[in-house]
Amino acid sequence: QVQLVESGGGLVQAGGSLRLSCAASGRTFSNYRLAWFRQAPGKEREVVAAISRSGSSTYYVDSVKGRFSISRDNAKNTVYLQMNSVKFEDTAVYYCAAAVGVLVATTPSAYEYWGQGTQVTVSS
């Protein structure tokens, strides 16, 4: 069982930066693949970035490539999403997700555990 708690969301101006953190409970964090999803009002939840169990493989949705970076610190049981050059369209609730597994996964159904979400609002 894993419990996930996101933090770091808030209001940011377009072009600014924000770092989201997701702290996980439990002792087997290193066994999990991880991801950040987001959901804007009226839209489906979409993957933003994902990272493999080892951290050697990552995935980014095209709209954030070159701007966002996912990383994990197994010693701190934490996964991060560094968001740079944010745009108005990045406004959404951001969720971290975890599942036992090795490879990167990009669909919500591939993840067992979810955080409660943190709101990111980008002002123009």
Description:
The protein is mainly beta. It has no helices and 11 strands. Strands 2, 4, 5, 6, 9, 10 and 11 form a 7-stranded mixed β-sheet that branches. A 4-stranded antiparallel β-sheet has the order 1-3-8-7, with no helix packed on it. A hairpin with a 6-residue loop joins strand 4 and strand 5. It is globular and about 40 Å long. The mean pLDDT is about 95.
Q: Give the proportion of residues in helices.
A: under 10%
Major beta-sheet overview: 7 strands, mixed
Radius of gyration: 13 Å
Average pLDDT level: 96
Alpha-beta content class: mainly beta
Compute the number of strand runs: 11
- % residues in beta strands: over 45%
Q: Tags for this entry?
A:
0% helix; globular; mainly beta; 7-stranded mixed β-sheet
